[in-house]
What does this fold into?
Amino acid sequence: DTGVSQNPRHKITKRGQNVTFRCDPISEHNRLYWYRQTLGQGPEFLTYFQNEAQLEKSRLLSDRFSAERPKGSFSTLEIQRTEQGDSAMYLCATAAGGELFGPGTRLTVL
Amino acid sequence: QQQVKQSPQSLIVQKGGISIINCAYENTAFDYFPWYQQFPGKGPALLIAIRPDVSEKKEGRFTISFNKSAKQFSLHIMDSQPGDSATYFCAASRWSNTGKLIFGQGTTLQVKP
It folds into this structure.
């Protein structure tokens, strides 16, 4: 247990459906990051928050993706109108003198 | 310029041997270089990290060697154990934002008993 929890751990959905993932970090870590990892590849940066402000978004984050971090605590990542190419592990991480990654949410789009 | 290239893709080592994984980066603005270990179904776990002001850092059986002029760094695992069998990722970022990492492609290590 790294102190970063993610829910759900697994999500299977049909193409075109919307999905939402949640990340609960250690409360005192003010930076929170989202990454995507496809099979056999390293994680790729998607976006990050400093407290509740979303400071940067990768070009990988299409218009179908939206992330929020209300009150600078937990964060959600929503994917609208899912596509098969969205199938991946979605990782959340916080940084405070060493980056802590959560266990990830594995998304499978059928 | 943002890439981090990692090699080899896979590695098989006998128990007790030395595992060596290499990485090369392009962006000279990077000044934080961590290594992560990932087991199947788990998130990456920070193993050891180095900054360019030193050429080597050792923590237990794990050592990072850093060559700033060549823009290369490597992970050495001494006395490799079957429990070290995992996927290893190098990464790079700026110290001002260590969580925004560029990862290498990963190396799958198998340590044979």
